[in-house]
């Protein structure tokens, strides 16, 4: 699969979200960070804003729920217009049931892992998912530096995906930029969340194209992609 770039509106101007969504036309998804000030120490936006965004853009929404009780709330984000909903396994009471409910409502189901959460205990859950998110910073705030120590975890995740023959997207989120995206792609990621690297650029749409080109080039040389 060609690399996908999902600009994060966490780095956008919240007073101009509709315009900011249009500024990244050509992006694969628009990444929407939902934080509740409980699961992570920050508060962002919720269902009403997602409903408004879904009406304001043709770019599908990728909602990343950094919240407590995603079992209750995740289906609401599908109903609000999200095309993909990511829950944190650390917060989910019944991740398999939740993934199936998200899918049943018509969205892609994704599971996120915080940096300290290993992938191996959740190997058997992978067939229930459409995407796996490996956090490359501690969730809660944008603009953090990329954690290189997550690269082996990305590789192990890609190996498990291949082991089971899954068509599972592998997303990375946190510190993704022109200086880190190639390492992520080489390790096995194919979906990249980029915040300040896109919205901090003079031309956000061009930044999306440039990041995608970098990722595609790195993927073409990666051993995991050749094996696949």
TrEMBL record:
InterPro entries linked to this entry: Aldolase_TIM, Ribul_P_3_epim, Ribul_P_3_epim-like, RibuloseP-bd_barrel
Annotated pathway: Carbohydrate degradation
Biological process according to GO: pentose catabolic process; pentose-phosphate shunt
Database matches in Pfam families: Ribul_P_3_epim (PF00834)
Sequence positions that bind substrate: 8, 64, 140-143, 173-175, 195-196
Cofactor(s) it depends on: Mn(2+); a divalent metal cation; Fe(2+); Zn(2+)
EC code: 5.1.3.1
Entry's cofactor comment: Binds 1 divalent metal cation per subunit.
Reactions performed catalytically: D-ribulose 5-phosphate = D-xylulose 5-phosphate
Residue numbers binding a divalent metal cation: 31, 33, 64, 173
Top-level division of the source organism's lineage: Bacteria
Purpose of the protein: Catalyzes the reversible epimerization of D-ribulose 5-phosphate to D-xylulose 5-phosphate.
HAMAP family (alphabetical): RPE
Family statement: Belongs to the ribulose-phosphate 3-epimerase family.
Protein name: Ribulose-phosphate 3-epimerase
Gene name per UniProt: rpe
